[in-house]
Design a protein that fits this description.
By secondary structure, the chain is mostly helical. The chain has a single domain (2-235), classed as Alpha Horseshoe (Serine Threonine Protein Phosphatase 5, Tetratricopeptide repeat). Helix content is 61%, strand content 2%. The chain has helices spanning 14-19, 41-44, 72-86, 90-103, 108-120, 124-137, 142-154, 158-171, 176-190, 193-205, 212-235, and strands spanning 2-3, 27-28. Strands 1-2 form a two-stranded antiparallel sheet. The longest helix is centred in the C-terminal third of the chain and has 24 residues, at 212-235.
């Protein structure tokens, strides 16, 4: 399962996020993707900073700047909703998350988890609306931009998906997962090989250790570009 949006405290070490879903850290599932998969949840959905062995971003995630206090009751309610999501108890999780969005509409976490639930249960219009509400609640929520972009891409709305990834990068240009997801969009869906290569390399540059799968993608893409250039030169 993959989980979204740390709710209030922004300074919990990333490793804890991967062990348990803290308050309004959205818990969602890793869906089956195409051969080139979207960036993993440890990058896409972590609202805390990336762990030292995961990324070497040169700037801080602005999403971490906010902090807020929340009641014990709210935290308990959110964790209960996350547990229901883990168990795929969709109806009960939905009721719990709707209640949270009604009681705490100013926080993006409940909206983002609710959007994911709608997405997972094929209610795409409701998912789109909830993702947008998550963005409206916190325009610095990198996770919400990425998830809505994936939804748009699945619907063939590639330009809108691209715009969302660009919005995410305008918020935090050093977010590895957004570069990777945008590269995949350009590579597999839009045929923009040079742009894809640029963002694959941006993603790779933000890793403390080389991602061997992405290294192979870069090499393959570079070969395709070189072959196309050679063919065009020959035709000319």
């Amino acid at each position: 399962m993959r989980f979204i949006d740390h709710y209030f405290s922004r300074k919990i070490p990333a490793i804890l996020l991967l062990v348990s879903c803290t308050l309004f850290t959205a818990c969602s599932f890793i869906p089956e993707r195409s051969e080139k998969q979207d960036a993993p949840i440890s990058q896409v959905f972590s609202q805390v900073s990336d762990s030292p062995d995961e990324a070497v971003a040169v700037s801080d995630n602005p999403y971490l700047a906010d902090s807020a206090n929340v009641s014990w009751a709210a935290e308990k309610s959110f964790k209960a909703a996350i547990d229901l999501l883990k168990q795929q108890q969709w109806s009960q999780a939905e009721q719990q998350l709707i209640s949270l969005t009604e009681n705490y509409p100013q926080y993006s976490g409940p909206w983002l988890n609710l959007a994911y639930l709608y997405h997972k249960t094929d209610r795409n219009q409701e998912a789109e609306e909830a993702y947008q509400k998550a963005i409206n609640a916190n325009p610095r929520n990198i996770n919400a931009y990425n998830e809505l972009a994936i939804l748009f891409r699945e619907q063939g709305r590639f330009i809108e998906s691209e715009q969302l990834y660009k919005q995410a990068l305008s918020t935090w240009n050093d977010h590895p997962a957004t570069h990777l997801n945008l590269a995949i969009l350009y590579d597999l869906y839009m045929g923009r090989m040079d742009d894809a290569l640029h963002h694959y390399r941006q993603y790779q540059s933000l890793q403390s250790e080389e991602d061997h799968k992405v290294k192979a993608w870069i090499a393959d893409l570079q070969r395709r570009i070189n072959r196309l250039v050679a063919e065009n030169h020959h035709d000319g």
